[in-house]
């Protein structure tokens, strides 16, 4: 698209979108502003700016929650689950799409159907199964769970995206003597780049913010994730929002930075043109 | 490589095997176990499990207005969220695929609500609805801000829709952008040379080409809205008068609060079947409209 | 970008054939970690504590206990409060990792767990336990739980605001309460801060008043269940609506959307003089307004001072012991130590700030905070009534709460409200 299209029309559109963006950002103001307030100030003057830039909430939350440990656990879980999900589901989606045998045509809807299963319905049986498989109370165990739970969504995304990848490229590779695995990893997988980035971003957010699964699988304090640790600030009657908001900000920063970093790749994928025919 | 390594059976096992294995262990097995429990009166912990046949299912259909009420709420909620969040998500994606000066920053901004999750999201919005809105209302005297947002059935419903759209639109936007990437720019230029208006291009060229993205987005928003749990749990607690209790919440309460695990899983099974049927209909409908590139 | 992607591709390429079994291999290592069986004479008692508020103090208690009890280690997990506690407890049970000591609310919440609970009737502390605290965890004459502490429910009041309005005598009847509210309002003070946004504040805490003041609450509830008693024509319930009216009339606007946080803040900052709550609010008030001059009042429903000058007191929660625990002897010993030794008692009252449910524990009111001190006085004078919401049929309380919300906004009148209570009870008891 050429820059010539940018005129008064797009300028006004831009203003409208900017205003909408401000609206979208408003809640973040509350999180950030209130994370610097003392407990009393936070509850009595919620919408105002903090009286001073007081980092004590952050310092205390860092200590009370054993934040470095929680951060490490969350990072390990998210990164390795992403990796497993991408490998497992891109391969499966590829095969399901390119070899629509009778079994594979049945398997795809089966995978997709899992996306509509409410987690609350499987959570206790999942713990039972986890016990049989000996995957409870271990980080590899929860990674396995996330791979299983996330696979259907990712297969679904890859499956939809792969349809736009022309067969000719693969056929050419067959002529060059590539075996099926080589074709997938050397030819197809790089073409999936935009979707891979999307999958990483979407799955990371889900796992980073997930609360129920770690609650069930990781019962040992030393395995606590950021979400679990933050929740220990909520007692029966005393909810320590001052520390919780500081913890929330600290929890957002890594995932936000991650998204900002990957966002560039998304754009690169866009400019490179995913489809060259 | 030896031949057996590239045989169809081997390929099938290597490509699909791992996914199928974890999927079977983590999804299918627990689900089957759950279905098994739905025919029992298990309370979640007891060592005595009595087989009660279809009694739980009968109870749900004949003697559980709460479940029906939560279903009706969830259905209305889903329709509203799906329409609004997709409309906004697509509009933003479309505008942000144009050469706006701030588009990279804006993409980030619209996506940012997704980094907030869980119970804190509800808390923050509770503050906004109860405090900030009334502060704005007092200052400006605009009726919209002077409503008791979480206090009445209608406004609590829309409060949940607003927050869901706020969070979901950016997510859908990402997928729509990924879809719009696949629209070749020469096709758009050809259309504009042919004198097509923006709307015409959108309807006749862009939309058909991004149908895969539309399929995904519709499917996602339907299944999320149907499974909505965290937000209702933390923002309205299902109130007022249980009017915003979603099906997932109803199931959770039944299974874990009232210790009627058997009944809860029976509800989950029914719910699962309904959602599956609805999404399958949606998928087959939108898939028909997809065009091969 | 290219490099980044190639790296991932290489890693995944290498792992592609292993991905299926890699998971299982990793899973194997998890087994070793979970098997911490007591080796030799050293035993570990696993405790799952739900009071997040006392987590730090509990860890200090653990250190002291381990010092004086060689060979016994405590593993205290203070995970989460509320619903999440029960969810994780169920998960631990399903995973075969049951704690040796955990919490249970008693009554029907105990039904599910009963077959796994150790009978504690023979424990020395049972004879010192006050009667009120026994009911929730007693089944067929057997005691299954040890109360963690007592909590008192009533109207919290701001002593400074009362003084400011010239109130010298505390209200003991409904007329007196209404007079107090009028005086406060005349002095420009909001009399009540109400939080009516959740069903449990209404259905549990508020409506308990009408059940507790029946001549024999348990007989009344039994009557409701077998159809011989009715809420709709009950005098006490009618009287209770009058108190409800007074609280609504002299309460804040938008009580239906005033949540617990907002109400606590309004009350702590002197924006209202009374708030239906209990001594559990003390730590919140201490944070919001340290040194606040606050006490607790009974909730009168009519003009009978003998009936109304009482607080509603119950055990906040109970400790229970897992029957199949390999260390249940040590677990019971620990619980007994907690309420019989000097150190244990000191922690209960001075550190945890619990109102003890045992007559042999001497408590200095100053340790408990001003609300707890008031509650303690009422307990010592025997002017207490019980908590009965756990005896409602499952699912009735949310229905009560929503009927009360409808009443507050004027959708239904008092007669209709009591009628709805009755039909909610009838509907829920059959299920």
From TrEMBL, chain A:
The cellular location(s) given in this protein's UniProt record come to: Cell membrane
Membrane-crossing ranges are 75-94, 106-127, 139-162, 183-206, 243-262
Q: What is the protein name stated in its UniProt record? A: Carbohydrate ABC transporter permease
Gene Ontology biological-process entries: transmembrane transport
- Main localization of the protein? membrane
Membrane topology category = Multi-pass membrane protein
Q: What family does the entry list?
A: Belongs to the binding-protein-dependent transport system permease family.
Taken from the UniProt entry, a GO cellular component term is: plasma membrane
Q: Name one Pfam family in it.
A: BPD_transp_1
**Species per Swiss-Prot/TrEMBL record:** Cohnella endophytica
Instruction: Identify the residues that the record assigns to the ABC transmembrane type-1 domain, covering every copy.
Output: 71-262
Which of UniProt's keywords are assigned here? Cell membrane, Membrane, Transmembrane, Transmembrane helix, Transport
Automatic annotation (TrEMBL), chain B:
Its chief place of residence is membrane
Is Ribosomal protein a UniProt keyword of this protein? Answer: no
Q: What's an example GO BP annotation here?
A: transmembrane transport
The protein's topology relative to the membrane is:
Multi-pass membrane protein
User: Per the database record, which ranges form the ABC transmembrane type-1 domain?
Assistant: 71-282
Q: Is Cell membrane among this UniProt entry's keywords?
A: yes
Please name one Pfam family that this protein belongs to: BPD_transp_1
Tell me what this protein is called: Sugar ABC transporter permease
What is the source species?
Answer: Cohnella endophytica
Automatic annotation (TrEMBL), chain C:
Please verify whether the record's keywords include Transit peptide: no
Q: Which UniProt keywords apply?
A: Cell membrane, Lipoprotein, Membrane, Palmitate, Signal
Pfam families per UniProt: SBP_bac_1
Q: Which InterPro entries match?
A: Bact_solute-bd_prot1, SBP
Does the entry feature the keyword Protein biosynthesis, yes or no? no
Name recorded for this polypeptide: Carbohydrate ABC transporter substrate-binding protein
Q: Which domain of life is it from?
A: Bacteria
Protein's organism: Cohnella endophytica
What is the residue range of the signal peptide feature?
Answer: 1-19
């Amino acid at each position: 698209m050429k820059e010539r299209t940018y005129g008064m029309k797009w300028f006004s559109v831009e203003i409208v979108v900017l205003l909408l963006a401000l609206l979208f950002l408003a809640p973040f103001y509350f999180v950030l502003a209130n994370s610097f307030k003392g407990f009393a100030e936070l509850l009595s003057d919620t919408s105002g700016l903090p009286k001073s830039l007081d980092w004590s909430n952050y310092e205390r939350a860092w200590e009370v929650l054993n934040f470095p440990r929680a951060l490490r656990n969350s990072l390990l879980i998210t990164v390795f689950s992403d990796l497993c999900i991408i490998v497992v589901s891109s391969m499966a989606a590829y095969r399901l799409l390119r070899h629509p045998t009778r079994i594979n045509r049945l398997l795809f809807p089966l995978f997709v159907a899992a996306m509509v299963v409410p987690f609350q319905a499987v959570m206790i049986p999942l713990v039972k199964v986890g016990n049989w498989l000996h995957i409870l109370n271990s980080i590899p165990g929860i990674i396995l769970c996330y791979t299983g739970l996330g696979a259907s969504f990712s297969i679904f995304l890859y499956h939809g995206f792969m349809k736009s990848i022309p067969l000719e490229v693969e056929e050419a590779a067959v002529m060059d003597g590539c075996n099926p695995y080589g074709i997938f990893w050397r030819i197809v997988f790089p073409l999936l780049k935009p979707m891979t980035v999307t999958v990483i971003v979407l799955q990371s957010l889900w796992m980073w913010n997930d609360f129920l699964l770690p609650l069930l699988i990781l019962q040992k304090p030393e395995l606590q994730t950021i979400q679990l640790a933050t929740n220990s600030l909520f007692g029966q009657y005393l909810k320590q929002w001052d520390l919780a908001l500081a913890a929330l900000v600290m929890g957002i920063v890594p995932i936000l930075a991650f998204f900002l970093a990957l966002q560039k790749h998304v754009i690169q994928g866009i400019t490179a043109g995913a489809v060259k025919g | 490589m030896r031949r057996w390594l590239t045989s169809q059976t081997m390929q099938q096992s290597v490509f699909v095997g791992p996914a199928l294995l974890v999927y079977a262990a983590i999804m299918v097995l627990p689900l089957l176990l759950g279905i098994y429990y739905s025919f029992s009166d298990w309370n979640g912990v007891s060592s005595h499990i009595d087989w009660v046949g279809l009694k739980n299912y009968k109870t749900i259909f004949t003697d559980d207005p709460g479940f029906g009420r939560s279903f009706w709420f969830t259905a209305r909620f889903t329709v509203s969220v799906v329409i609004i969040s997709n409309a906004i998500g697509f509009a933003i994606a479309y505008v942000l695929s144009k050469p706006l000066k701030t588009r990279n920053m804006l993409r980030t901004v619209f996506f940012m609500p997704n980094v907030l999750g869980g119970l804190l999201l509800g808390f923050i919005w509770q503050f906004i609805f109860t405090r900030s809105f009334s502060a704005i209302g007092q200052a400006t005297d605009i009726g919209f801000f002077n409503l008791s947002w979480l206090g009445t059935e209608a406004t609590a419903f829309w409060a949940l829709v607003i927050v869901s759209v706020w969070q979901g639109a950016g997510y859908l936007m990402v997928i729509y952008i990924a879809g719009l990437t696949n629209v070749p720019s020469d096709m758009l230029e050809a259309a504009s040379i042919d004198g097509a208006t923006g709307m015409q291009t959108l309807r006749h060229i862009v939309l058909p080409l991004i149908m895969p993205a539309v399929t995904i987005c519709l499917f996602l928003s339907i299944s999320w809205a149907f499974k909505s749990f965290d937000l209702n749990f933390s923002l309205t607690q299902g109130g007022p008068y249980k009017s915003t209790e979603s099906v997932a919440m109803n199931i959770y309460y039944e299974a874990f609060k009232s210790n009627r695990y058997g009944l809860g899983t029976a509800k989950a099974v029914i719910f699962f079947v309904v959602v599956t049927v609805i999404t399958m209909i949606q998928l087959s409908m939108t898939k028909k409209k997809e065009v091969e590139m | 970008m290219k490099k980044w992607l190639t790296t991932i591709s290489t890693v995944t390429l290498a792992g592609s054939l292993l991905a299926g079994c890699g998971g299982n291999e990793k899973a194997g290592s998890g087994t070793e970690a979970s098997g911490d069986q007591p080796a030799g004479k050293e035993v570990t008692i696993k405790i799952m504590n739900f009071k997040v508020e006392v987590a730090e103090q509990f860890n200090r208690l653990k250190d002291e206990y381990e010092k004086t009890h060689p060979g016994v280690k405590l593993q205290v997990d203070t995970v989460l409060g509320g619903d999440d506690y029960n969810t994780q407890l169920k998960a631990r049970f399903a995973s075969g990792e049951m704690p040796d000591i955990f919490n249970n609310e008693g009554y029907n919440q105990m039904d599910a767990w009963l077959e796994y609970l150790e009978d504690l009737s023979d424990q020395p502390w049972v004879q010192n336990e006050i009667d009120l605290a026994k009911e929730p965890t007693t089944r067929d004459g057997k005691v299954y739980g040890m109360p963690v502490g007592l909590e008192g429910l009533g109207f919290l009041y701001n002593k400074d605001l009362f003084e400011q309005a010239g109130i010298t005598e505390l209200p003991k009847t409904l007329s007196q309460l209404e007079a107090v509210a009028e005086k406060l309002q005349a002095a420009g003070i909001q009399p009540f801060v109400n939080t009516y946004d959740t069903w449990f504040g209404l259905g549990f805490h508020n409506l308990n008043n009408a059940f507790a003041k029946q001549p024999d609450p348990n007989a009344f509830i039994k009557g409701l269940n077998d159809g011989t008693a009715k809420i709709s024509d009950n005098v006490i319930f009618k009287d209770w609506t009058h108190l409800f009216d007074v609280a609504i009339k002299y309460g804040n606007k938008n009580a239906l959307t005033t949540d617990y946080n907002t109400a606590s803040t309004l009350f702590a900052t002197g924006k209202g003089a009374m708030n239906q709550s209990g001594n559990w609010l003390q730590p919140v008030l201490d944070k919001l307004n340290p040194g606040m001059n606050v006490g607790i009042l009974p909730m009168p429903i009519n003009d009978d001072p003998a009936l109304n000058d009482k607080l509603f007191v119950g055990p906040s929660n109970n400790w229970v012991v897992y029957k199949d625990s390999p260390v249940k002897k040590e677990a019971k010993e620990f619980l007994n130590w907690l309420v019989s030794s000097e150190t244990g008692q000191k922690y209960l009252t001075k550190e945890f700030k619990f109102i003890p449910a045992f007559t042999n524990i001497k408590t200095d009111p100053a340790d408990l905070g001003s609300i707890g001190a008031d509650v303690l006085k009422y307990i010592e004078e025997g002017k207490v009534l019980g908590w009965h919401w756990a005896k409602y049929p499952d699912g009735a309380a949310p229905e009560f709460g929503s009927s009360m919300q409808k009443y507050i906004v004027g959708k239904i009148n008092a007669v209709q409200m009591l009628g709805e209570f009755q039909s909610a009870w009838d509907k829920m008891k059959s299920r």
